[in-house]
Amino acid sequence: MSWAPGAGLPIVESTTPPVLTLNGPVTRPRVPGLVDDARALMEATGAAVVVCDVAGIGPPGLTAVDLLARLQLAARRAGGHIRLRAPDPALRALLDLAGLRFEVEGEVEEGEPALRVEVEVEPGEAAV
User: Of 23, 70, 80, 98, which cross-links 48 as Cys (Cβ 3.0–4.6 Å)?
Assistant: First the structure.
């Protein structure tokens, strides 16, 4: 199998994922409608990732956790996932307590070292 590189830079499609803004307070009757909105947004845009802006979701509670879990489930069923934007530290703690892990905008991905981290290779050797 052979491949001849083309002239110039490769074509890279830069797309911005669609954003679903969640305004609070979140109540149980609103959850199915918001899940339907996220599903429709993924279908309309063809995006694999939907960014959920949770800055205005209000005080974190079990209804917010339920909503985010259902949004993630709907996105996974559609072949994608959700990413949180601006989550409150209390909401993140509640999600961790429930055992739910979400990708958060602006964070280093799991398994990747943070920038400017010095690692000692062997005990006694200087950090690189």
Answer: 80
**AA letter at 52:** C
**pTM, two decimal places:** 0.72
Q: How many CB atoms lie within 10 A of CB 110?
A: 7
Cβ neighbours of residue 9 closer than 8 Å, sequence gap 6 or more: none
Angstrom distance (rounded) from CA 104 to CA 92: 10
| C-alpha distance from residue 22 to each of 38, 67, 69, 82, 87 (Å) | 10, 10, 14, 13, 11
Nearest-CA neighbor of 88 among 60, 65, 67? 60
pLDDT(112) > 70: no
